[in-house]
Amino acid sequence: MKNQDLTMPVPKSDYLNVLMERGLLYQCTNLEALDQALTGSRIAAYIGFDCTSNSLHIGSLLQIIMLRWLQKTGNKPIVLIGGGTSKIGDPSFKFNKRKLLSEEEICNNKLNIKNILNKYLSLSAASHNLIMVDNAEWLDKLEYIKFLRDYGSYISVNQMLGFESVKLRLDREYSLSFLEFNYSILQAYDFLELYRRYGCVLQMGGSDQWGNIVHGVKLIRRVNDNKVYGLTSPLISSSSGAKMGKTTKGAVWLNEEKLSVYNFWQYWRNIKDADVIRFLKLFTEIPLDEVSRLAVLGGAEINEAKKILANEVTRMCHGQIAANAAAEISHCTFDVGAISEGLPKVDIDRRKIEAGLSVVNAIVYAGLASSKSAARRLIRAGGARINNATILNESAIIAGKEINNAGFVKISAGKKLHALLQAV
């Protein structure tokens, strides 16, 4: 089953219209038939989220947005939490097998991921159209021999070897264990189980999941002789080709405990000019006519569009109050030049500063450089500042006099990265 050409006429269904207009649609197994199904009635569709971390990052944000639009257009989103599949790990496009997690780790990750998803999807009694389910409910109970007998004849190893994710591993002679090879089978079975339990007829995901999704579509067709569909969103990279959601400090997490709201806001505020309009379409619900108005902005005015993007994405993830606070911190820091107490803070023993703390160590300690050598390069390039004063001497020392009345020392790396050392 190959990627279908998406140059069809304007879809009749509201949902596919939204996906197509905003650039959220990349592949579909049968677009016209899915459009008819969406036009004729409301459908149930799912996306799975494994519990391999205690937070999702913005690499998953596009899929969350797709579920949100699905709900807004009157359809039934099914959030599948991979409590079962997380015990194996998806090998898709990864050259090393995942570390196996304990039951306790998976349970903790599951709760955190549910909390994130609840911010985006309506659980109100008025909606009546959201299902959140854990595939451990059925995968933990599978009897291996019975499973092989019932479904083994429907699963093509030839097809699985042709999946791009598997070929990448094999072509590079990286190990692919039998454990991981079974992941695709279990994901296909998930789709079958959701079809039987909830009438789910559509699985969605990122384009790296295309092979697994097609596998599930074919399994249902062979076992139940029913028509279901698969649909993917594009994998997003910046205009420079960089992978979406990666920074010099790591992933852009959706959990405030792993990434401060301010740093989350700043990530979106600092994207490249060429990405602003595309990201407004993909990651916000701003009407497209307003996006078109912002598209004509140029020069310094494009910064206003970036602030709108940052405000909207942060509002959806962390709430309006948190978004406003992050915007105000940014205003104080960049527009006014003040030392805002809302900047990310790192506690440090006051005695270390008063005894003399090297600027190099302070930059690393604040998380603004990955190593001392990187901090020295920053100083040599003129990008290091202490309390807004540029530091050019690699041997410079921070002393007690640099601690302001509120107990902070502001550390800056370039124009965009700032943190506060909080003397305790």
UniProtKB/TrEMBL annotation:
Residues 341-420 form the Tyrosine--tRNA ligase SYY-like C-terminal domain. One of its GO terms (biological process) is tyrosyl-tRNA aminoacylation. GO terms for cellular component: cytosol. It is found in: Cytoplasm. Its main location: cytoplasm. It comes from the Bacteria. GO terms for molecular function: ATP binding; RNA binding; tyrosine-tRNA ligase activity. L-tyrosine binds at residues 46, 183, 187. It catalyses: tRNA(Tyr) + L-tyrosine + ATP = L-tyrosyl-tRNA(Tyr) + AMP + diphosphate + H(+). A motif ('HIGH' region) lies at residues 51-60. Keywords: Aminoacyl-tRNA synthetase, ATP-binding, Cytoplasm, Ligase, Nucleotide-binding, Protein biosynthesis, RNA-binding. Catalyzes the attachment of tyrosine to tRNA(Tyr) in a two-step reaction: tyrosine is first activated by ATP to form Tyr-AMP and then transferred to the acceptor end of tRNA(Tyr). This is Tyrosine--tRNA ligase. It comes from Candidatus Endolissoclinum faulkneri L5. The lineage of its organism: Bacteria, Pseudomonadati, Pseudomonadota, Alphaproteobacteria, Rhodospirillales.
